[in-house]
Amino acid sequence: MKIICVGRNYTEHIEELQNEKPQDPVLFLKPDTAILLKKQPFFIPSFSQDVHYEVELLVRINRVGKHIQKKFAHKYYDEIGLGIDFTARDLQQKLKEKGLPWEKAKAFDGAAVIGEKWLNKKEFENVDDINFSLQRNGELVQKGETSHMLWKIDELIEYISEYFTLKIGDVIFTGTPAGVGQVQINDELKGYIKNEQIFSIQVK
Ligand code: ZN
């Protein structure tokens, strides 16, 4: 399986990192080795002094597809999840300044948290109106709302599948809302869709 991530999909997050608003979705990939293993803590890697959490809504692909039109995109997923796109922000900043790829900052081992709980999309009246959030040590740090996405889920599936064949089990990270911040050793990160806890991660 592969992980396709969307960058800069929420205006307030683009502003907090002082990035330009993109013309098209910004895409990058994470390998399956980036997935944080179940029940394991996240270890801050030695090559970064500034790892950030980014909570993101996830979509799990359930059929093979390429050149999927937006109007058919809803047939390619049933499940909605939640995860964290851990980012070595200091390293990413250096790579961005040089115009280099971001993989070292985004695709390292453990950098993709995929919450163990998946919710059927039928549980939601409208997938373009889902609330999600992240708590750090019991304090609310990020609050997202899919209605604020620059590109909605079906538009992302259309755009991504122009470039990459989507396969069963692939996971799309749909971008982070504002409020990203640094993790510290001994942090506890809990992700919620509506009021339902989807994951709980220890930072070591
Ligand atoms: Zn992200």
Walk me through the structure:
The chain is an alpha+beta fold. It has a single domain, classed as Fumarylacetoacetase-like, C-terminal domain (Fumarylacetoacetate hydrolase, domain 2). The protein is 15% helix and 33% strand. It contains 4 helices and 14 strands. The protein has helices at 11-16, 89-97, 103-106, 153-163; strands at residues 3-7, 26-30, 51-53, 55-61, 77-85, 87-88, 112-114, 119-120, 131-136, 139-145, 171-173, 181-182, 188-193, 196-202. Strands 1, 2, 4, 5, 7, 8 and 11 form a 7-stranded mixed beta sheet that branches. The longest helix is centred in the last third of the chain and has 11 residues, at 153-163. The protein is globular and about 45 Å long. The structure holds zinc ion. Residues 5, 7, 54, 56, 85, 173, 175-176 line the site of zinc ion.
**Helix-and-strand structural type:** alpha+beta
What order do the SSEs take from the amino end to the carboxyl end, as H and E?
EHEEEEEHHEEEEHEEEE
CA-to-CA gap between the ends? 27 Å
CATH topology: Fumarylacetoacetate hydrolase, domain 2
Shape: globular
- Poorly predicted regions are none
CATH architecture: Alpha-Beta Complex
Name of the CATH first level:
Alpha Beta
Number of helical elements: 4
Range of strand content:
25-35%
Instruction: Outline the biggest β-sheet.
Output: 7 strands, mixed
How many strands appear in the DSSP assignment? 14
List ligands, each type once: zinc ion
